[in-house]
Amino acid sequence: MVLTAKDLSTAMNAKIIGSGGEVMVLAHGFGGDQSVWDKVLPSLSQHYSVLIFDWNFSGAIDKDLNLYDPVKYSSYDAFAKDLIELLDEMRLKSLVFVGHSMSGMIGCIASIKRPDLFKRLILVGSSPRYINIEGYEGGFGNSDIEQIISNVESNYQNWASAFASLVVDTKDPHSVDKFAKCLARMRAEVALPLAKTVFYSDERQVLDMVVTPCTIIQTTKDCVVPNSVPLYMQKKIKGKSTVEMIEGDGHFPQLTAHLQFLDVLGRVLGFHDLGRD
Asked: Residue 247 half-sphere exposure, CB side, CA atoms within 13 Å?
């Protein structure tokens, strides 16, 4: 069963797959689109009604290229408002939200604004801050981020190709290619301001306002998010939270370690046959 709603949900290519009694939302991160969930969607849709969509910055958005306003979306707050509007439009609530990378923090912010919409947050490779500061390891120095921004600005396509190989486990070349194509589809004039929003973000103060139960999923070797970050998040999140580590490289366990990823979700959510159907 595939349902498509109107207005914002149409512009964001939103659709519900599956007919489970509970709702799960899958939200991609920077440079991606809903296709990053392709490996896990068949299993998840056997147990849930799964909402997938494309954020307005995605290269998969072709109906309205003006949806992304770099001033409006200079913080995660505007994305959180879009998420809430999307869920309200589709009349969804009390759901499981799976947010990858930046979408994890967007989900946290949305859950503070509207806790009735969220039953559980699954934060995959998420980070509240990427730049190191005294007492906090974000994984990057200021000069590292400045270099990333400079590379995005000077030659986005070259940077995108190199970045895909850096953040996706190269032992899975098909997944590297998939994400590289996603990045290549995103317009450079969108990628630059969005990269600034993401890499200069600092949402640490949000964590102690999150009361929705959280599961933080992290690979053991993620070059974007150090292993100290999920432990920091677990300590700071006000609600009950747990950390689940997946053995492997890269920032995309749903692509490169999808069976392990499904096993974690199955154990956390009570569907132990996930990924083995």
From this structure: 0
